[in-house]
From TrEMBL:
Composition-biased stretches (Basic residues): 90-101
Region (Disordered): 75-105
InterPro entries in the record: cNMP-bd_dom (IPR000595), cNMP-bd_dom_sf (IPR018490), RmlC-like_jellyroll (IPR014710)
Protein name, as recorded: Potassium/sodium hyperpolarization-activated cyclic nucleotide-gated channel 1
Domain Cyclic nucleotide-binding: residue ranges: 145-189
Length: 308
Protein backbone atom coordinates (compact mmCIF):
# COMPACT_ATOMS: atom_id res chain seq x y z
CA UNK A 1 0.00 0.00 0.00
CA UNK A 2 2.45 2.68 -1.16
CA UNK A 3 -0.01 5.52 -0.45
CA UNK A 4 0.27 4.92 3.32
CA UNK A 5 3.84 6.19 3.17
CA UNK A 6 2.39 9.69 2.85
CA UNK A 7 0.50 9.65 6.16
CA UNK A 8 1.66 10.69 9.61
CA UNK A 9 3.38 8.47 12.14
CA UNK A 10 0.43 8.91 14.52
CA UNK A 11 -1.96 7.61 11.86
CA UNK A 12 0.20 4.53 11.26
CA UNK A 13 0.35 3.85 14.99
CA UNK A 14 -3.45 4.09 15.19
CA UNK A 15 -3.77 1.63 12.30
CA UNK A 16 -1.35 -0.73 14.04
CA UNK A 17 -3.48 -0.71 17.17
CA UNK A 18 -6.53 -1.54 15.08
CA UNK A 19 -4.98 -4.61 13.44
CA UNK A 20 -6.42 -8.01 14.35
CA UNK A 21 -4.12 -11.04 14.32
CA UNK A 22 -5.76 -14.03 12.63
CA UNK A 23 -4.32 -17.54 12.31
CA UNK A 24 -5.11 -19.37 9.06
CA UNK A 25 -4.47 -23.05 8.36
CA UNK A 26 -3.49 -24.73 5.11
CA UNK A 27 -6.09 -24.53 2.30
CA UNK A 28 -8.17 -21.89 4.09
CA UNK A 29 -9.24 -18.87 2.02
CA UNK A 30 -8.50 -15.34 3.18
CA UNK A 31 -10.23 -13.68 0.23
CA UNK A 32 -12.59 -15.15 -2.37
CA UNK A 33 -12.91 -13.83 -5.90
CA UNK A 34 -16.14 -11.91 -6.45
CA UNK A 35 -17.00 -11.54 -2.77
CA UNK A 36 -16.91 -8.29 -0.87
CA UNK A 37 -14.35 -8.29 1.93
CA UNK A 38 -14.72 -5.89 4.83
CA UNK A 39 -11.02 -5.88 5.65
CA UNK A 40 -7.54 -5.43 4.27
CA UNK A 41 -5.23 -8.38 4.89
CA UNK A 42 -1.49 -8.18 5.53
CA UNK A 43 0.54 -11.38 5.42
CA UNK A 44 2.68 -11.35 8.56
CA UNK A 45 4.15 -14.86 8.57
CA UNK A 46 3.50 -17.76 6.19
CA UNK A 47 2.74 -18.38 2.52
CA UNK A 48 -0.32 -17.82 0.33
CA UNK A 49 -1.23 -18.34 -3.32
CA UNK A 50 -3.15 -15.71 -5.30
CA UNK A 51 -5.56 -16.96 -7.96
CA UNK A 52 -7.64 -15.17 -10.60
CA UNK A 53 -10.30 -16.90 -12.71
CA UNK A 54 -9.33 -20.17 -10.94
CA UNK A 55 -5.74 -19.88 -12.22
CA UNK A 56 -2.74 -19.38 -9.95
CA UNK A 57 -1.25 -15.95 -10.57
CA UNK A 58 1.52 -15.70 -7.99
CA UNK A 59 2.67 -16.70 -4.52
CA UNK A 60 3.47 -14.44 -1.61
CA UNK A 61 5.66 -15.58 1.27
CA UNK A 62 6.92 -13.92 4.42
CA UNK A 63 9.34 -16.44 5.98
CA UNK A 64 10.04 -16.63 9.68
CA UNK A 65 13.45 -15.09 10.35
CA UNK A 66 15.72 -16.95 12.76
CA UNK A 67 18.54 -14.98 14.35
CA UNK A 68 21.83 -16.43 15.52
CA UNK A 69 24.34 -14.28 17.41
CA UNK A 70 28.06 -14.98 17.57
CA UNK A 71 28.87 -13.39 20.92
CA UNK A 72 30.41 -14.46 24.21
CA UNK A 73 28.34 -16.77 26.46
CA UNK A 74 27.29 -13.98 28.83
CA UNK A 75 26.01 -11.84 25.95
CA UNK A 76 24.15 -14.84 24.51
CA UNK A 77 22.54 -15.48 27.89
CA UNK A 78 21.44 -11.85 28.25
CA UNK A 79 20.00 -11.88 24.73
CA UNK A 80 18.05 -15.08 25.45
CA UNK A 81 16.67 -13.67 28.72
CA UNK A 82 15.63 -10.44 27.00
CA UNK A 83 13.97 -12.36 24.20
CA UNK A 84 12.10 -14.58 26.69
CA UNK A 85 10.90 -11.55 28.63
CA UNK A 86 9.66 -9.96 25.41
CA UNK A 87 7.76 -13.15 24.57
CA UNK A 88 6.07 -13.15 28.00
CA UNK A 89 4.87 -9.61 27.52
CA UNK A 90 3.06 -10.84 24.43
CA UNK A 91 3.09 -7.72 22.32
CA UNK A 92 0.04 -7.86 20.08
CA UNK A 93 1.09 -5.32 17.50
CA UNK A 94 4.30 -4.32 15.73
CA UNK A 95 5.37 -1.39 13.66
CA UNK A 96 7.83 -3.36 11.53
CA UNK A 97 9.19 -6.84 11.01
CA UNK A 98 11.24 -8.49 13.73
CA UNK A 99 14.38 -8.14 11.67
CA UNK A 100 13.82 -4.44 11.16
CA UNK A 101 13.10 -3.87 14.87
CA UNK A 102 16.27 -5.61 16.02
CA UNK A 103 18.40 -3.72 13.54
CA UNK A 104 16.94 -0.40 14.66
CA UNK A 105 17.35 -1.24 18.35
CA UNK A 106 20.99 -2.19 17.85
CA UNK A 107 21.81 1.23 16.41
CA UNK A 108 22.24 4.51 18.20
CA UNK A 109 19.30 6.90 18.06
CA UNK A 110 21.26 9.30 15.87
CA UNK A 111 21.47 6.69 13.13
CA UNK A 112 17.72 5.96 12.84
CA UNK A 113 17.40 7.95 9.62
CA UNK A 114 20.28 6.07 8.00
CA UNK A 115 18.76 2.74 9.05
CA UNK A 116 15.38 3.65 7.54
CA UNK A 117 17.09 4.63 4.28
CA UNK A 118 19.04 1.38 4.19
CA UNK A 119 15.88 -0.68 4.74
CA UNK A 120 14.06 1.25 2.01
CA UNK A 121 16.87 0.61 -0.47
CA UNK A 122 16.95 -3.08 0.49
CA UNK A 123 13.23 -3.49 -0.14
CA UNK A 124 13.52 -1.62 -3.43
CA UNK A 125 16.38 -3.86 -4.57
CA UNK A 126 14.41 -6.95 -3.58
CA UNK A 127 11.38 -5.79 -5.57
CA UNK A 128 13.51 -5.01 -8.63
CA UNK A 129 15.10 -8.47 -8.41
CA UNK A 130 11.65 -10.08 -8.24
CA UNK A 131 10.49 -8.16 -11.30
CA UNK A 132 13.64 -9.07 -13.24
CA UNK A 133 13.16 -12.74 -12.38
CA UNK A 134 9.49 -12.61 -13.35
CA UNK A 135 10.02 -11.09 -16.78
CA UNK A 136 13.18 -13.05 -17.64
CA UNK A 137 11.27 -15.85 -19.39
CA UNK A 138 8.37 -13.71 -20.55
CA UNK A 139 5.20 -12.95 -18.65
CA UNK A 140 2.84 -15.83 -18.00
CA UNK A 141 -0.87 -15.28 -18.79
CA UNK A 142 -2.53 -13.16 -16.16
CA UNK A 143 0.69 -12.20 -14.37
CA UNK A 144 0.70 -8.59 -13.26
CA UNK A 145 4.12 -7.13 -12.52
CA UNK A 146 2.52 -4.12 -10.83
CA UNK A 147 1.06 -6.48 -8.23
CA UNK A 148 4.49 -7.32 -6.83
CA UNK A 149 4.72 -6.06 -3.24
CA UNK A 150 6.76 -3.01 -2.36
CA UNK A 151 8.04 -2.05 1.07
CA UNK A 152 4.89 -2.20 3.19
CA UNK A 153 4.50 0.27 6.08
CA UNK A 154 4.39 -2.59 8.60
CA UNK A 155 7.70 -4.17 7.64
CA UNK A 156 7.76 -7.25 5.41
CA UNK A 157 3.98 -7.74 5.35
CA UNK A 158 2.31 -7.70 1.92
CA UNK A 159 -1.03 -6.07 1.28
CA UNK A 160 -3.26 -8.82 -0.06
CA UNK A 161 -6.54 -7.12 -0.84
CA UNK A 162 -9.09 -4.44 -0.02
CA UNK A 163 -12.74 -4.04 -1.04
CA UNK A 164 -14.51 -6.35 -3.51
CA UNK A 165 -11.91 -9.00 -4.22
CA UNK A 166 -10.88 -9.67 -7.81
CA UNK A 167 -8.70 -12.61 -6.71
CA UNK A 168 -8.83 -15.62 -4.42
CA UNK A 169 -6.13 -15.81 -1.74
CA UNK A 170 -5.58 -19.28 -0.26
CA UNK A 171 -3.20 -20.29 2.51
CA UNK A 172 -0.46 -22.79 1.62
CA UNK A 173 0.74 -23.41 5.17
CA UNK A 174 0.04 -22.18 8.67
CA UNK A 175 0.08 -18.38 8.36
CA UNK A 176 -0.46 -15.32 10.51
CA UNK A 177 -2.46 -12.57 8.82
CA UNK A 178 -3.09 -9.06 10.14
CA UNK A 179 -6.61 -7.84 9.38
CA UNK A 180 -7.56 -4.17 9.13
CA UNK A 181 -11.35 -3.96 9.07
CA UNK A 182 -12.92 -1.33 6.84
CA UNK A 183 -15.05 0.11 9.67
CA UNK A 184 -11.93 0.67 11.78
CA UNK A 185 -10.09 2.28 8.87
CA UNK A 186 -13.00 4.62 8.07
CA UNK A 187 -13.23 5.68 11.71
CA UNK A 188 -9.51 6.43 11.79
CA UNK A 189 -9.88 8.57 8.67
CA UNK A 190 -12.43 10.70 10.51
CA UNK A 191 -10.07 11.06 13.47
CA UNK A 192 -7.16 12.17 11.25
CA UNK A 193 -8.55 14.71 8.72
CA UNK A 194 -5.11 15.71 7.42
CA UNK A 195 -4.26 12.11 6.60
CA UNK A 196 -7.67 11.71 4.96
CA UNK A 197 -6.83 14.63 2.67
CA UNK A 198 -3.46 13.05 1.84
CA UNK A 199 -5.00 9.65 1.08
CA UNK A 200 -7.77 11.10 -1.09
CA UNK A 201 -5.15 11.91 -3.75
CA UNK A 202 -4.31 8.21 -4.00
CA UNK A 203 -7.86 6.84 -4.31
CA UNK A 204 -7.44 5.94 -8.01
CA UNK A 205 -4.31 3.98 -7.07
CA UNK A 206 -5.99 2.18 -4.17
CA UNK A 207 -9.32 1.36 -5.81
CA UNK A 208 -9.12 1.91 -9.58
CA UNK A 209 -12.47 2.50 -11.27
CA UNK A 210 -13.20 1.76 -14.92
CA UNK A 211 -14.20 4.77 -17.00
CA UNK A 212 -17.62 3.93 -18.44
CA UNK A 213 -17.89 7.22 -20.31
CA UNK A 214 -15.43 5.88 -22.89
CA UNK A 215 -17.55 2.80 -23.68
CA UNK A 216 -19.55 3.00 -26.94
CA UNK A 217 -22.83 2.01 -25.29
CA UNK A 218 -22.57 4.82 -22.75
CA UNK A 219 -21.71 7.45 -25.34
CA UNK A 220 -25.09 7.05 -27.06
CA UNK A 221 -27.22 6.94 -23.91
CA UNK A 222 -27.98 9.91 -21.70
CA UNK A 223 -26.65 8.71 -18.34
CA UNK A 224 -26.17 10.83 -15.25
CA UNK A 225 -22.80 11.09 -13.56
CA UNK A 226 -24.31 9.39 -10.52
CA UNK A 227 -25.26 6.32 -12.59
CA UNK A 228 -21.84 6.16 -14.21
CA UNK A 229 -20.23 6.37 -10.77
CA UNK A 230 -22.51 3.57 -9.57
CA UNK A 231 -21.37 1.37 -12.45
CA UNK A 232 -17.73 2.18 -11.71
CA UNK A 233 -18.11 1.11 -8.07
CA UNK A 234 -20.18 -2.04 -8.61
CA UNK A 235 -19.07 -3.59 -11.88
CA UNK A 236 -16.86 -6.61 -11.22
CA UNK A 237 -13.63 -7.09 -13.13
CA UNK A 238 -12.48 -10.60 -14.01
CA UNK A 239 -9.42 -12.05 -15.73
CA UNK A 240 -9.90 -14.74 -18.39
CA UNK A 241 -7.29 -16.82 -20.15
CA UNK A 242 -7.23 -18.30 -23.67
CA UNK A 243 -9.73 -21.13 -23.90
CA UNK A 244 -11.79 -20.11 -20.85
CA UNK A 245 -15.58 -20.01 -21.12
CA UNK A 246 -17.13 -16.63 -20.30
CA UNK A 247 -20.63 -17.31 -19.01
CA UNK A 248 -22.49 -14.31 -17.51
CA UNK A 249 -23.78 -15.08 -14.03
CA UNK A 250 -27.40 -15.04 -13.04
CA UNK A 251 -27.70 -11.94 -10.86
CA UNK A 252 -30.41 -13.63 -8.82
CA UNK A 253 -27.67 -15.08 -6.64
CA UNK A 254 -26.36 -11.57 -5.88
CA UNK A 255 -29.53 -9.41 -5.63
CA UNK A 256 -32.88 -9.74 -3.82
CA UNK A 257 -35.70 -11.02 -6.01
CA UNK A 258 -37.78 -7.86 -5.54
CA UNK A 259 -35.08 -5.83 -7.31
CA UNK A 260 -35.00 -8.05 -10.39
CA UNK A 261 -36.89 -7.89 -13.65
CA UNK A 262 -37.91 -11.51 -14.38
CA UNK A 263 -37.58 -10.87 -18.12
CA UNK A 264 -33.94 -9.80 -17.92
CA UNK A 265 -32.22 -11.25 -14.90
CA UNK A 266 -28.98 -12.05 -16.69
CA UNK A 267 -25.85 -9.97 -16.31
CA UNK A 268 -24.02 -8.38 -19.22
CA UNK A 269 -20.28 -8.42 -19.77
CA UNK A 270 -18.18 -5.78 -21.52
CA UNK A 271 -14.85 -6.67 -23.10
CA UNK A 272 -12.33 -4.35 -21.44
CA UNK A 273 -9.26 -5.63 -23.26
CA UNK A 274 -8.48 -8.69 -25.35
CA UNK A 275 -10.31 -10.65 -28.03
CA UNK A 276 -13.42 -12.85 -27.64
CA UNK A 277 -14.93 -15.40 -30.03
CA UNK A 278 -18.66 -16.00 -29.72
CA UNK A 279 -20.14 -19.45 -30.30
CA UNK A 280 -23.90 -19.58 -30.95
CA UNK A 281 -26.40 -22.40 -31.59
CA UNK A 282 -26.62 -23.68 -35.21
CA UNK A 283 -28.51 -21.33 -37.48
CA UNK A 284 -27.96 -18.28 -35.25
CA UNK A 285 -24.48 -17.33 -36.38
CA UNK A 286 -23.45 -13.74 -35.69
CA UNK A 287 -21.09 -13.36 -38.66
CA UNK A 288 -19.48 -10.96 -39.21
CA UNK A 289 -19.97 -10.18 -35.50
CA UNK A 290 -18.71 -13.49 -34.17
CA UNK A 291 -15.51 -11.92 -32.86
CA UNK A 292 -15.64 -9.20 -30.22
CA UNK A 293 -12.94 -6.87 -28.95
CA UNK A 294 -12.52 -3.95 -26.55
CA UNK A 295 -15.76 -2.09 -25.87
CA UNK A 296 -18.09 -4.80 -27.23
CA UNK A 297 -20.83 -6.23 -25.03
CA UNK A 298 -21.62 -9.84 -24.19
CA UNK A 299 -25.25 -10.32 -23.26
CA UNK A 300 -27.90 -13.02 -22.79
CA UNK A 301 -29.05 -15.13 -25.70
CA UNK A 302 -25.70 -15.38 -27.46
CA UNK A 303 -24.87 -18.88 -26.28
CA UNK A 304 -21.36 -19.61 -25.05
CA UNK A 305 -18.42 -17.23 -25.04
CA UNK A 306 -14.81 -18.22 -25.52
CA UNK A 307 -11.71 -16.11 -24.92
CA UNK A 308 -9.18 -16.41 -27.77
Amino acid sequence: MPCLRQVSEEFLQAIEKGLVHQLYFSEQCILTEGQDSSFAAFLSDGEVVVEAAQRAVRREEVPFVEFRFTMNPEADSRASMAESEEGRRGQSHRRASRKKSMVVESRRSGEDVAVESLISLTNKARTEAMIAEAVAGGLTPGYDVNALPEAAPFGEECLLGLGPSSVTVSVCKLSVVLLLHRAVFEQLLQDFPKDLAALSRFQPEMLPKPNFQDLPICQHVDMSNELLDFFARHVERRIFFPGDNIEPDNVQIFLPKQLLNPASNITYAIVSSGHVRVKTPPGLELAPFGHLSSGDILGPGAGEFFRT
